[in-house]
Amino acid sequence: MSTKTSAPPVKWSQRKDVVYLSIDVQDAEQPQVKLDSDDKHGKVSFKGKAKSHATGPELHEYSLDLELNGPIDPKQSKISVSGRQVLLCLKKTQEGHWPRLLAQSGKTPANITVDWDRWVDEDEEDEVKGKEPDLAGMQDFSNFDTSQFDVTGDNEDSDDEDLPGLES
């Protein structure tokens, strides 16, 4: 196992009242997430051992310390750990969009990117309100309906037809 500590890949997006952080680690073993805040900046710390999407099954040690662009409410924020990622929903103490994730201006570190799957423009935010996932039940799969998925492979599909031979 590698003893070098790396910064994990992080994706972020925001709404006027929350910031979403997705720490991209597979099967994190006992991840430690610490949220803190003062009047000016929120702070996120992450430590854990996890698999890398890029290098396969070997465990790597990850560490992350972020000073955010604005204050957060750690008690109202949520943390969800899944097999693919650690997802944070950080509650802002003051509504409004931040110009960037980090307090420090300049070039964003290479491991931090925008999460375009969750991104919503400021002027479109009211339209998607209510369509966001409920993070409170993220790990509760007891009501997950698998009957809509055909796992038998008996369905006919045009992709299953034999392809014609190559012409020479």
TrEMBL record:
GO terms for cellular component: cytosol; nucleus; protein folding chaperone complex. Residues 153-168 have a biased composition (Acidic residues). It holds the Pfam family CS. Residues 31-54, 122-168 are annotated as: Disordered. Signal peptide: none annotated. GO terms for molecular function: Hsp90 protein binding; protein-folding chaperone binding. Residues 43-52 have a biased composition (Basic residues). InterPro entries: CS_dom, HSP20-like_chaperone, p23-like. Residues 5-102 form the CS domain. GO terms for biological process: chaperone-mediated protein complex assembly; protein folding. It comes from the Eukaryota. Residues 140-150 have a biased composition (Polar residues). Belongs to the p23/wos2 family. This is CS domain-containing protein. The lineage of its organism: Eukaryota, Viridiplantae, Chlorophyta, core chlorophytes, Trebouxiophyceae.
